[in-house]
């Protein structure tokens, strides 16, 4: 599956992108990142059947999906080059806990990127090419969770020690993988983009794996992504 930009609306897209840049303290380059490394991971609620920024089919929400932090996602609005990419994410530690929490089992999940986690002045999706987020990550994966496809026990804890079960943010390792490893890959209704959204969308079934160092470029689109 390939995706093309509607050239007839290029001027409005350029204007939209320039407006976005005006909100940044300085013009930032999109983040370049290797196919494997370390990142932070948070989670957010994504309603079943919701059409997120990439325009992926509603049935994709029945399988593990995530939003990617904006400057790695590669667009300020609507779809970016990260759309449709699949990553294996493995929990490492809950670094904000005191003492730091290390799980005694290995928990991993393969996610498909279907959404954008907007850039902000604070929070975990605020990394730019000039500096990481508060956890030292240049990427943040915002996992759609709770999810029918991910066990409620996916995030381990020690409620007796900490008094709660949700740390909110984790250090993770990530690895770019073929989307054939994604749970939803064998369900054709979970693949592809929604047609006639009124804006350009792109959700490849199984994008080419990332190069050793990926450079993402801005998509000059003008559809605001809902969160």
From TrEMBL:
UniProtKB keywords: Signal
Tell me where on the tree of life, at the top rank, the source sits. Answer: Eukaryota
InterPro entries, alphabetically?
Expansin/allergen_DPBB_dom, RlpA-like_sf
Could you say which residues form the signal peptide?
Answer: 1-29
Give the Expansin-like EG45 domain ranges: 51-184
Q: Specify one Pfam family.
A: EXPB1_D1
The name on file for this protein is RlpA-like double-psi beta-barrel-protein domain-containing protein-containing protein
What's the source species for this entry?
A: Boletus edulis BED1
């Amino acid at each position: 599956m390939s995706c093309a930009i509607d050239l007839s609306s290029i001027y409005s897209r350029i204007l939209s992108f320039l407006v976005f840049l005006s909100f940044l303290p300085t013009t930032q380059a999109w983040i370049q990142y290797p196919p494997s490394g370390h990142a932070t991971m948070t989670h957010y609620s994504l309603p079943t059947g919701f059409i997120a920024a990439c325009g992926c089919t509603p049935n994709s929400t029945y399988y593990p999906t995530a939003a990617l932090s904006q400057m790695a996602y590669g667009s300020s609005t609507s779809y970016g080059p990260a759309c449709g990419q699949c990553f294996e994410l493995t929990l490492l530690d809950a670094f904000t806990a005191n003492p730091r929490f290390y799980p005694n089992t290995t928990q991993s999940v393969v996610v498909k990127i279907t959404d954008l986690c907007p850039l902000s002045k604070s929070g975990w999706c605020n990394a730019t090419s000039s500096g990481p987020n508060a956890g030292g990550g240049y990427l943040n994966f915002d996992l759609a969770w709770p999810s029918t496809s991910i066990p409620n026990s996916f995030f381990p804890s020690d409620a007796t020690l900490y008094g709660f079960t949700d740390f909110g943010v984790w250090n993770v390792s990530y690895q770019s993988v073929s989307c054939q490893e994604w749970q939803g890959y064998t369900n054709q209704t979970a693949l592809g983009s929604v047609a006639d959204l009124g804006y350009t969308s792109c959700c490849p079934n199984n994008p080419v794996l990332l190069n050793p160092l990926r450079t993402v470029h801005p998509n000059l689109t003008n559809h605001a992504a809902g969160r």
